[in-house]
Amino acid sequence: MTTPPRPTAVQPSPIVLHQWEASPFCRKVAHMLKFKGLPYEVVNYNGLRGIMALRLSQVGKLPVLDVKGQRIQDSTRIARFLDEHYPGTPALYPADPRSRAQVELWEDWADEVLYWFEGYFRLNDPQALAQFITLMCAGRPKWEQAPLKLLLKVAGGMSIKAQGLGRMSAENVKAELLRHLDRIDTTLADTGWLVGPTQTVADMAVGAQLLEVVRTSPLRDEILRRPHMARWIAALRPQHSL
Hints:
alpha+beta; four-stranded mixed beta sheet; 242 residues
């Protein structure tokens, strides 16, 4: 009598992060996954391969996360999904309603305001732009850097001008950014984190924007010379490969 074969265990589908190498929003999601201790795979859309990202979501933007048979776009929606579906892991949002509201305000500010400062100096500083293009074309043929640079200069410049920062002088934009950095440094003086005594998605969202500045721009010195921010950046760095 033959022994029937044992059924093989069905392995869960891996979490897959579709990303651009130098996107602060993609870095934010990678930080969240590492913070929660969730293993994941990465698919990069660097260089001109980025055109393929248009097929992944209705808005054609990254990050996009494939998890549990679902496809989620937008870093904030991904954060909420992860807290809802992985409750046994460290929470990204506090349970206390008031603290959660503060975290969400910081997250929204990072994604909708601070991002434009990061983008402004990335496009207008030759050193930052060169490093950004190199990162965005990692693993791709070198010839792709020139058309990608032109595309980013044109499309990015138009977006920043429409947003408003592109209509201001560089001196005024920098002065406003420095005021933002002072506010962040003052906020961090209490607990070392933006909201409450532990790390939250507020730190991940703001940190993802500023870590890109630290990685590519001479403005890193303005961030790192502020003592509370320097310690905060050091604490965030283990979650990021810079």
